[in-house]
Amino acid sequence: MFLALKELKKSKLRYGLVGIIMILLSFLVLIISGLANGLSHDSASSIIEMKADRFILSDDAEGKLLRSQMKKEDVDNILAQVDEKDAVPMYMKVSTLEKEGSSKKVDVAIFSSKPDSFIAPKVIEGKHNSLENNEIIADKSIKEKGVNLGDELVEPISNKVFKVVGFTENQMFSHSPVVRMNEEVWDSIAMPHQKDYNVIALNTDKEIKNAKVVDKKEVLKGIPGHKEQQGTLTMIIAFLIVIAALLIGVFFYVITLQKTHQLGVLKAIGTKNSYLVKALVVQAVFLTSISLVISISLVLAVRTVLPAGMPFLLTATTIAQFSGIFIVISILGTLFSLYHVLKIDALEAIGGGM
Questions:
Q1: Residue 37 contacts residue 45 (beta carbons within 8 Å)
Q2: Which positions ≥6 away from 300 have C-beta within 8 Å?
Q3: Which residues pair with 267 in a beta bridge?
Q4: Rounded mean pLDDT for each run of 10 residues along the chain, 354 residues in total
């Protein structure tokens, strides 16, 4: 430990440059991870936050909620197999609402289901009771589009006017705010092919006969663009981590080569390989830890100045996971250096340095 920290203190510029590279790499990984999680949450938070782990869709839906259309007799058959409180049929569609008295239009996802069920989101502002036929609650992100509490929105198919009476949070679908309304009004706004329920949310592990039951992960994959976005960003993060491991390994290997003579001297006076290896690992872990603290601070600072509309989500768990990954790859990245330390011959090293 003493040797490792003493060398870091003496060679500030050399190890400082390595630290800067590690700060930039970990900063990039955390930023991209935050954007990936933000996009994921922004496209599917209404499903992610929904207190249902399983869903029933029509057989031909291929896991896609909006494509699913369930006949009334099929829904009745399913509901007969479970307790009433454990299964909630739901209508869904994407639409564009127009603000009353204005030309402003808002793209939304409309959800409609039985009120006060287990899938009902928490209202953080406004009315908390059951909705009347002309009332809706919306995700608070709709405020960014100029819609406030008490505003009226017109549904284009029926020309029916709805009043915004409450706001929820974390209720997005395909990057659009979710608007919830009373299911009794659904027939008046739905197209002929949208009269059927889209999905049944389940809050039970009971086996359902004559129905296609899918888990939440499969439903999330069926949300337009969700799987593709996550695949692309995950690949970028994976490449950054691989690049970080290679760079860390190369830097420590080059630094170790430069001090072959000093290591030979230490070996000649009786320093054990285990001590030298421990010093190298301590340097890597210490340097990585300091770099992570700085990069995390930078990420948190950047997060405070990001535009409100930019989806960004970075939890303490995610930060801890990537910090652990970087510490592990910093240790693994020193393997080349460890091998060089172990094979150094004291006499050759000292002689080669004369």
A1: no
A2: none
A3: none
A4: 59 77 89 86 87 89 86 89 89 89 87 87 83 89 90 88 92 91 84 79 88 88 77 84 81 74 70 75 85 94 84 89 88 72 64 52
Q: Would you tell me how many other CB atoms lie within 10 Å of the CB of residue 309?
A: 9
Provide φ and ψ at 216, rounded to 5°: -65, -35
What is the dihedral sign for C-alpha 90, 54, 118, 175? negative
Same domain, yes or no: 65 and 192: yes
Asked whether residue 145 falls in the same domain as residue 269, the answer is no
Listed residue (168, 173, 185) closest to 127, CA to CA: 168
- 3-state per-residue secondary structure call for 305-324: HCCCCCCCCCCHHHHHHHHH
Domain range for residue 197?
52-202
In the prediction, which pLDDT does 62 show?
A: 83
Cα 174 from chain centre: 14
DSSP assignment string, 293-304:
HHHHHHHHHHHH
Quick one: DSSP state of residue 197? B
Q: Which amino acid is at 154?
A: V
What backbone torsions phi and psi does residue 108 show, to the nearest 5 degrees?
Answer: -140, 165
95 HSE (CA, 13 A, CB side): 21
Pairing of strands 161-168, 87-99: unpaired
What pLDDT is attached to residue 351? 62
Task: Record the pTM.
Answer: 0.75
Asked whether residue 211 is assigned to any structural domain, the reply reads: no
Residues 279 and 176 placed together within one structural domain of the fold: no
- pLDDT score recorded for residue 353: 46
Cα separations in angstroms, 128 against 51, 120, 125, 185, 290: 18, 11, 8, 19, 48
